[in-house]
Amino acid sequence: MTSEMIATNVVSYIPNPQRLGRARTLHDAITLVSGSACPHRLNPVDRYGRTFTCTASALELGDCALMYVQYGFDVAIEVGCVEDYFLVKSTVAGEGYLRSGQRSVVTSPRSIAITCPGEQTEIGMRAECRHLTARISRQALEKNLVEKLGRRLQDELRFDLQVPVESTFGQGWQELLAHICQLSARAPAILEAPQMRRQYARTMIEMLLCQAPHNYSTVLRSAQDHATPWYVRRAREYIRSHLPEIRSVAEIARSVGTSTRTLQSGFRQAYGKTPAEYIRAARVQALHDLLLSAGPSQSVTGLMENLGIVNFGRYAAYYRQFIGETPSMTLRRAMAIECSRQHM
Q1: At residue 113, what are phi and psi to the nearest 5 degrees?
Q2: pLDDT greater than 60 at residue 8
Q3: Which are the contacts of 298, defined by CB distance < 8 A and separation ≥ 6?
Q4: Predicted model pTM
Q5: Is residue 25 domain-shared with residue 131, that is, in the same domain?
Q6: Torsion of CA 294, 300, 306, 310, to 10 degrees
Q7: How many domains does the chain divide into?
Q8: Would you say residue 231 has pLDDT above 50?
Q9: 131-141 burial, b for 16+ CB within 10 Å, e for fewer?
């Protein structure tokens, strides 16, 4: 792996590089990590003669926080019962394990692990392991879920312990966290504004509830669909299946058997945006997904054409507005990350 690849990969997952902390003793490492994650007991398993070292970086976002950590040796971390937070762990490199209650999984870059508040939690990390952990307020998550369902929760919210990175949630979550980390590195002044940090925290909570599998996923989807007019649901499905061919909102209205005016009103009620804005966002997201999985011979313009995009400049501006970087930047970063993974 070249030094440029290493730099690209590290910057992509450090949430606050300006305040990257290092510890050289066990006590200092516990203090460094506990201040931003949660209190814990750190047990070195086998140092193989290595000098004690711990590298960590944290970024507070209000109801959420991001924490990057790497130890220079094998460790077992006894977290205990954390009542107030969900921990969403992305393994950037290496392998380890996570136990939450009676459940346990091997952690690696192939999956994302989500703990359950109130369960005894233990985390194992090999020397080469690097974690980017999101700490999510349980109260904020459950409040948001109650608002979506329109009733109190009968059971505690419980996510699947492990979610593949190839899933819609996995890909979106990794990209969201990488975007936040890169923004902190390249334009830290933006995240100094409390309202910006809160906005990113809300986005993280929305993505967890709407995309990560949990015990309320089916009920939540049904509640959201029930509140959406039938013609909007049909239009949404039509957009998903005909995205490259769509040329006008009138075409969609005819396909679902309603008027353009009614469809406009329905989309504003359901999504707070017009059908045209919904299509635009869908194309930007589809382009984002294609760029992340693009091969070395593919180009930004070619992928845009595959989605029915003809005004490349305008959509490049939309893309930057929604994603926070240009399409070519996403493509270059995805290629660099893929190359670095192949060389790990």
Answers
A1: -110, 140
A2: no
A3: none
A4: 0.64
A5: yes
A6: 170
A7: 2
A8: yes
A9: bbbbbbbbebb
